Amino acid sequence: MTSPPAELDALLERHAGTRYSAAVVRVEQGGRVAYERAVGTLRDDGGGRAYVDTRFDLASITKVFVATVALALVARGTLALDVPLIGPITLRMILAHTGGFRSGADYRTLFDEHVETFALREPLVASPGERVVYSDLGFLALGSALAAATGIALEPLIENELRALGSERVTFGRRARNEAIPATERDAWRGLVQGRVHDEKAALAGGVAGHAGLFGDALDVARLGEWYLGPRHGRRSPLPAALTEAAISEQAADPVLRRGLGWALKTSDANSCGASMSRETFGHTGFTGTCIWVDPLRDLNVVVLTNAVHFGRHDLRDVRAALCDAAVEAFA
């Protein structure tokens, strides 16, 4: 019978070369690393090994980093959660995906558009506050609103704010181009995408957007989770406890995935955090094959970074869930 950490090893190795070419898993308990492992190579044809500090295209985990910067601006009084930010839409609505923005748009219709302006002018699909519509366009609009509110371009704003909060290596893609970054997809538009943002809308925005575009390693993604987990257990956070608690508490109900502020909240055992994590669990996934899931009841923080989209646009939910279940078995 394999030991629980060995089960994590086995799961990671089992899918290398078929579901992803590169993967890193980091598990923290009580704010300290309990497990960290990298497997695979940067491309399916090699390209060098992946290491535990390899940076990945984080895809929609970008939304949580951007939400965190927005909350830091709330803490300083630059923004407010419940004051209209974009028309009648408040920051709380945007962060909880209840602003009414369309989910997304086919990038092939956007080549002649300024992407952020498109997001701001598109008709809403629901009344503000009415219901959850998970939205890239909402966070594209948020990026524009943050830059306008601070007078600072989005790229230096996000990167500098994250450094101030304690992140070390999270940047937008233009600062990752000379690094050994796992490749994502081969597509007819761009060929092999490696060291450049995978998300097409973010690419059309120059690689800098509020919904996607950040690159980072497992340590910095785990730090993001710890900023919200730590206060539940008496550990320090760079954000006020009232804001971290609000962010991981239900702001909007949804039958598939409840919403906090930036964070998704476990709603059923079908979510990609698996069956073993508690209903208190919060997290987020990224289309490229990334996720973070954090269980406050177990003081457990699980980060999975992969380049699954390198092998096609297939659902990685089973792999994410199995890794989270194995982490609970091993360390909770």
Structure characterization notes:
An eight-stranded antiparallel β-sheet has the order 3-2-1-15-14-13-12-11, with helices on both faces. Strands 4-10-7 form a three-stranded antiparallel β-sheet. It is 32% helix and 19% strand. With 332 residues, it is of the alpha+beta class. The mean pLDDT is 95. A hairpin with a 2-residue loop joins strand 1 and strand 2.
Termini Cα gap: 19 Å
Question: Helix and strand succession?
Answer: HEEEEHEEHHHHEEEHEHHEEEEEH
Strand content: 15-25%
Q: List low-pLDDT spans.
A: none
SSE-based structural type:
alpha+beta
**Radius of gyration, rounded?**
19 Å
Spatial strand arrangement across the major sheet: 3-2-1-15-14-13-12-11
Note the overall shape: globular
- Summarize the main sheet: 8 strands, antiparallel
Question: Mean pLDDT score, rounded?
Answer: 95
State the oligomer: single chain
Task: Give the total of beta strands.
Answer: 15
Estimated helix fraction: 25-40%
Number of helices: 10
Quick overview of this protein structure:
The chain has 332 residues and is an alpha+beta fold. The protein has helices at residues 4-15, 61-75, 91-95, 115-121, 136-150, 154-165, 200-204, 218-229, 241-247, 317-331, and strands at residues 22-29, 32-43, 46-49, 56-57, 84-86, 89-90, 171-172, 186-187, 191-192, 214-216, 258-259, 264-265, 282-286, 290-295, 300-306. The chain has ten helices and 15 strands.
